[in-house]
Amino acid sequence: MVGSDDLNLNRRDLMVGAGACAAMPAMPGTAKAQPGPDGNPVEFQVSLTVNGKSHTRNVDTRTTLLDLLRENLHLTGTKKGCDHGQCGACTVIVDGRRINSCLTLAVMQEGSSVTTIEGLGQPDNLHPMQAAFIKHDGYQCGYCTPGQICSSVAMLEEIKAGIPSHVTADLLAPVQPTETEMRERMSGNICRCGAYSNIVEAITEVVERQG
Amino acid sequence: MKFDTPAGTSPIDQLKVIGRPTDRIDGKYKTTGTAPYAYERHDAVPNQAYGFVLGSAIAKGRIDAMHLSDARSAPGVLAIVTTLDTPRLGRGRMNAAYLFGGPVIQHYHQAIAVVVAETFEQARAAAHLIRVDYRQEPGKYDLEAEAPHAEPVASDSGEGSGAPHEARIGNFEEAFAAAPVKLDESYTTSDESHAMMEPHATIAAWNGDKLTLWTSNQMIAWGKGSIAKILGIPAENVRLDAPYVGGGFGGKLFIRADAVLAALGAKAAGRPVKLALTRPLIANNTTHRPATIQRIRIGANPDGTITAIAHESTSGNLADGKPETAVDQTRLLYAGANRLTALRLAHLDLPEGNAMRAPGEAPGLLALEIAMDEMAEKLGIDPVQFRIINDTQVDPEKPERRFSHRDLVGCLRHGAERFGWDRRQQQPGHVRDGRWLVGYGMAVGFRNNLLTKSAARVRLDGRGMVTVETDMTDIGTGSYTILAQTAAEMMGVPLEMVNVRLGDSAFPASAGSGGQWGANNSTAGVYAACVKLREAVAAKLGFNSAEAVFADNEVRSGNRSVPLAAAASGGELVAEDMIEYGDLAKKQQQSTFAGHFAEVGVDAATAEIRVRRMLAVCAAGRILNPKSARSQVIGAMTMGVGAALMEKLAVDTKRGFFVNHDLAGYEVPVHADIPHQDVVFLDEVDPMSSPMKAKGVAELGICGVGAAVANAVYNATGIRVRDYPLTLDKLIERLPEAV
Ligand code: FES
Ligand code: FES
Residue B496: its chain A contacts at CB < 8 A? Predict the structure, then answer.
C-alpha cells in the first residue's frame, strides 16, 4: 500500500503505484490530465474569435474549448452532456466545421473562429434553423438543442460541399439532403427526450426554404 | 378548491387557447441557448468555486482510510469533505441508499468525497490524488442467481404503480389447468439508465444558516423537504430553484449526491460551490430501472376469452429498496375471472433501483404484451382482435368499480386501420423487401392517471399582464406553455399577456413532474387560482362573478365591458389556490390507453433490426396542447425503441457495478435509429380527472412500445426473443434458412 511517506515520489509514480495496490485510484476510467511538474497549472495565452468577437485569455492547458466558452466567457448556450465526445450537446462550429467542443483543448484553438448557438441567433432575432425547431417542436427539455441546431446548420453545409456519409449511395453524384442522409449525419447528437422525428422535420423545412 | 364532483362546464371548455397546438413559449430561449440550467447560473451568486465528486471504487465494504495530503496541497484546492469525516447523513424521500457519510460502502460509485477548488480542472486533478484504503466485502450482484431466494414483497413505485406481494381473484391454478389453450413463459428485462442529457448538477450557497440550491430536480417541494432532512436543517431555511431541467425521466425525482455535496462543499469552503456529476458517475452513483425476471401464464377458451391470467415478477434492490412493480397493469388491463399477480424482491448490492419513466408498467408491458402476442398466435386469433375480445370496462379485481373512461378498443381499431394492419402476414418470416425481412407488431399501452394536489399563484398587473407562479417544473414536458394556456383561457387574454415563473420553492407547491401527473394536476392548480382571481377581478370592477365573461382582455356582463387591466389599476391583484381531490379516483378507475404499432426490417444476413414505421393512438382525456403532448409521446416511443433494441446496463457480477456507465457504452437511440413517428390522440374528455378533464400521456407513450417492436421482429423472422433488449446476437443463429 502506498502510504503518506511516499510523498517524495512524483505524482505519476504515485498514480501508477496506487493502481497496482490495494489503495485503488478512486475514479477508474476518467480523464487524468495532470498539472505541470511543479504542481501548478500550466497557463497559456490563447486568442480566438467567438461569434465575431475576439478574446484573448490565459487558460489552464487542461481547459477544453467547451469550458472556456461556458466557464470563462459565460457563453452557457453550449451544453456539457458528457465531456467525452459521446453526446454532441457541446457542438459548435469552428472555422465552418462542426466539432465537439469538449474534445478540443482551448489552447488548440489559437486563431480559430468559433460560432456558438448564441452567435447563430437571439430570442428576438432567430436563425431560420432556430425558428424551425420551435415550429416543429424539435426539442423538449432543450438541453441537447443548441448542439442539435449548430450541428444541423453545419451538416447542411457539409452536404452542400458534397462530403459523403456512410449512407451516401452514389459517391459521384451530388449528395442530396434526404432524410436518410440527415438522420445519419445527425446521429452524433443524442436527444434523450427523443425529438428526432420532429428535428428532421425542422431541418427539412430549412432545406426546402433554401431551395 | 376541492374537486369532488365530476367537472361541469367551465371557461376551459371554450378551447380558445387550451387544446391548441401552440408553439412552446420557452422555445425561443431553449433554441438560442439562453434558457439557464442549474450549472449555468453564473448570475445567481458571486464567487462560485468548483466541486468534483469522487465515487467509491468498490461495490460493498468499508473505507479504512483516505489519504488526502496530496489532494489538500494541490493547487487551487479550497476544501475537501470526505465520507469519513461526515457522520452518515439522513436519507431523503425515497432514497434507499445513503447519499453520503460514514465508512460503509453500499454500492459502486457511492459518493465518498467532494473536492472544492478554484477551477474545475484543479478540483478534478486534486480528486484524483486522493487515495483510499478499502476493505472489500463479498456482495450479491447477479439477479438470476439471487432470484430463487427472492422474498414476496408488496410495493408502490411512488410513481403511481403498485401491487400487493400477491393478489388472487378466483382460483387461478384450477382455471389455468382446465384451460384448453395455455401459455407459460418467462421474460427478462434489463437494468436501464435514465441517461438524461443534463447531468445532475447543483450550485449551493449558504447565507448564514440559509441554504439556496440552484439545481436540476423534478419535484421541488419534495426536494426541499429532503435536503432539510438529509442535512438536519429546518425546511424553511432551504430554497430550491430549477427553472429549466435538462431531462429527468424519474432520475431527478429525488435529491441526489450533487445537491448534498454542493451544500457540504460550500459550507466547508465558505463559498458558493457548483458541481455536476460527471457522466461516468451517473449510472452507478444515481438510480436506474431495475432488471426483472417475469413469468406469465395465460389460459383461454378457443374463442379467445381469457379464463386465467398470472403475472409474477422478480427484481433486485438494496436493503430498503423496492421491487419493480411490473405486474401492476396486469391487475387492470384484461378481463378474466381467475387472476394472480405476485412480486418478489431479491437483495442485490448493485446501485439503487428506483423510478424510471413508467416504473412498473414499462417493463411489465414489455413482457405481458409479448405474452399476449404469443397467446393470440396459439389461438389463431389476430393480436388486435384478441385484445378487443378481452377488453374490460370494469376493474377485473373489483367489478363494481368502473373505468372513468376507457377507449382502448377505439385506440386499437383506429390504429389498425391507420397503420394498415390488414396487410400484416399472420405467418411470420414471409415478407421480404430486398435484404430485409419485414414484420408488423402491435401492443397495448396502459398507465394509470394520478391525482395529486397542486397549488399556484396568479397575479394581474396594471398593464393587464397575468403572471403565474408555481414550483412546477418543466423538464421538457411543456409545463410553461400549458400553464400559460390555462391562465390565458381562464382570464380571457392572449398567450402573450401571460408570464409563467416555475421551479422556485418560494412559489406555491405544485404536483411536480413525475408519474405523468404533472400536466393535469398543475394546470388544475392554475385553474383553481384563476377562479379566485376572476372573483377578485369581478368584485373590484363591480361585476357579478357568476355572470362575468372574461374575453379579449376585457370583462363583460350584459352590455357593460371593462378592460381587465382596470381591475389592477389601483395595485396588483393576487390570488392563490390549490386543487385538492376527493375520492372520485377511488370510486372509478382512471387510466390512460394506447395502441402501439410498429413495422421493422430485419437484415436477412446480419439480423440488424431497423424500425421502419411507428404509430401510437392514445386515449388520455383532453389533450391540453397537441403539439407538446405529441412530443412527449414520440419521445417516449423513442425510449421504448431503446428498451426493445439496445438499452442494457451490463452488470459485472464479480465486482458489482454497471460496466457501460457512459453514453458510448450505454446505447440509447440516435437519429438514425428512429423513423418518422405518427401519433393520434382520440378526441375525448374525462370529467372525473379534474376541471381540465385531462390525463397524462408522457409515460403512456413508452408503455407497450418495446413489445410492439419485439412482436414485429417475431413477425418478420419467426424468432421469438423473450430477453430484452433484442440485440442481433439473439437472432443471428436462428435466422430463417434459404436467405
Ligand atoms: S459534452 Fe461534448 S460530446 Fe458530450
Ligand atoms: S430536448 Fe432533451 S435531450 Fe433533446
Answer: none
In the sheet where A91-94 sits, what is the strand order?
Answer: A53-60, A43-50, A113-115, A91-94, A97-100
Q: Report which bound ligand comes closest to the CA of A143.
A: 2
Give yes or no on whether B44-138+198-285 and B393-449+590-739 have one common fold: yes
- Domain B44-138+198-285: assigned CATH number: 3.30.365.10
Q: What is the DSSP letter of B621?
A: B
Quote the CA–CA distance of B587 and B610 in Å, as a whole number. Answer: 44
Domain residue extents for chain A: 128-210
The model carries a pTM of: 0.95
Nearest-Cα distance to chain A for B509, in Å, is 21
The model's pLDDT over A150-159, given as tens digits with 9 standing for 90+, comes to: 999 999 999 9
- Mind telling me how many Å the CA of A20 is from chain B's nearest CA? 12
B305-321: buried (b, 16+ CB within 10 Å) or exposed (e) per residue?
bbbbbbbbbbbbbbeeb
* Helices (H), ranges, B504-602: 518-541, 584-587
Q: Which residues partner with A97 through β-bridges?
A: A94
Superfamily classification of domain A128-210 = [2Fe-2S]-binding domain (1.10.150.120)
Output the CA A172–ligand 1 centroid distance in Å.
33
Q: Say if ligand 2 is within 6 A of residue A143 CB.
A: yes
Of A76, A118, A197, the CB nearest to B40: A76
Nearest Cβ partner for B31 among A15, A116, A145? A145
pLDDT band at A15 (very low <50, low <70, confident <90, very high): very low
**What's the CA gap between B543 and A68, in Å, rounded?**
59
C-alpha cell at B59: 461495490
B699 among known catalytic residues: yes
Please give the Cα distance from B357 to B335 (Å, whole number): 26
Count CB atoms within 10 A of the CB of residue B583. 9
pLDDT digits (tens, 9 = 90+) for B366-400: 999 999 999 999 999 999 999 999 999 999 999 99
CB A146 within 8 A of CB A189: no
pLDDT at site A10:
41
Give the C-alpha separation, B107 to B408, whole Å: 42
B393-449+590-739 CATH pick, 3.40.50.740, 3.20.20.70, 3.30.365.10, 2.60.40.2310: 3.30.365.10
pLDDT of A16: 38
pLDDT digits (tens, 9 = 90+) for B583-610: 999 999 999 999 999 999 999 999 999 9
A37 lines ligand 2 (CB under 6 A): no
Amino acid A22: pLDDT: 39
What is the secondary structure of B474-493 as a DSSP string? -SSS-HHHHHHHHHHHHHT-
**Separation between Cα atoms, residue A162 and residue A180, nearest integer Å:** 15
Specify whether the CB–CB gap between A4 and B67 falls below 8 A.
yes
From the candidate CATH numbers 3.40.50.620, 2.60.120.810, 3.30.365.10, 3.20.20.450, the one assigned to the domain spanning B2-35+451-586: 3.30.365.10
Nearest CA in chain B to A89: B197
Query: Residue B324 carries which side chain, given as an amino acid letter?
Result: E
Q: Which residue has the cell 401491487?
A: B163
Query: CB distance B112–A26 less than 8 Å?
Result: yes
pLDDT of residue A25: 42
**If we measure between CA atoms, which residue out of B508, B513, B568 comes closest to residue B696?**
B513
Distance CA B739, CA B733 (A): 13
Distances (CA, A) of B401 to A167, B3, B388, B619: 55, 19, 20, 19
pLDDT averaged over every residue in chain B: 97
Ligand (nearest to CA of B195)? 2
Restricting to A residues 75-114, those with a Cβ less than 8 Å away from any Cβ of B are: 75-84, 86-87, 89
